[in-house]
Amino acid sequence: MSDTSPATLLADRALLRVSGEDVRGFLQGLVTQDMTLVTPETPQWAGLLSPQGKALFDFLIWEASDGTMLIDCESEQLDALARRLTLYRLRRPIEITPVDDIGVHWAANGTDGYADPRLARLGRRWLGTRDAAPATGWRAHRLGLGVTEGVAELGQDKTLWLECNARELNGVRFDKGCFIGQENTARMHYRGKVNRRLVVAPLGEESNRTRARYPELGLMVEHRRIDDLGNAHIPDWLAAALAVPQE
């Protein structure tokens, strides 16, 4: 945790606490990330997928000082994510509860918190009290680096996890064992076949590949074939992936 500072609160984020017996093992069998990598100093980006490997929710996972897990997710998806996790709980002694007194904070630079696990250039992220002003510039900063997130941009049960650039942004581990949607995700990875990508592009006409439009930023998010990326912004981390020949 870090002391809060002015204008750092990501007001559209919320936290779920997952606690109980073997909570790390519970999440390990569900999410795309290796839960052994989650520590108080190393939050990890993860997805909860459909059995077909399509993104349902994406979030960051933190370890709290008491060993429970804190899921940093979209506030609008908090209840839906809690319900989904509860379905998988079955009879396990696991509790899934919202956290009201802790907020998610961000700064483009500085020394507070920890580097975003997706891409260090996204800035610093930490958990703290909610008595700070809302941060400004996060969305523009994130999209400027070509990073997409959330149901509006990733879609819900619409986009395969690797098409969300999860491999390039450290959102999946292929040596961790099984997770929901693992079979199709691993097959795509080992065959080297990711035919479409979520990309950020200059604002244009809406089409059937458009996911989100941000007129105030002059940007939009689209789901495009890799052989038809057109005027999409291709950051260096994505360019490196696209340079690898498809099998």
UniProtKB/TrEMBL annotation:
SUPFAM superfamilies found in the cross-reference section: Folate-binding domain
Keyword Transit peptide attributed: yes
Record keywords: Cell wall biogenesis/degradation included?
no
Keywords associated with the record = Transit peptide
Superkingdom, natural source = Bacteria
BP term (GO), one: iron-sulfur cluster assembly
What InterPro entries has UniProt attached to this entry?
Answer: TrmE/GcvT-like, YgfZ/GCV_T_CS, YgfZ/GcvT
Which NCBIfam families does the annotation name? ygfZ_signature
Q: From the Swiss-Prot or TrEMBL record, give the protein name.
A: Folate-binding protein
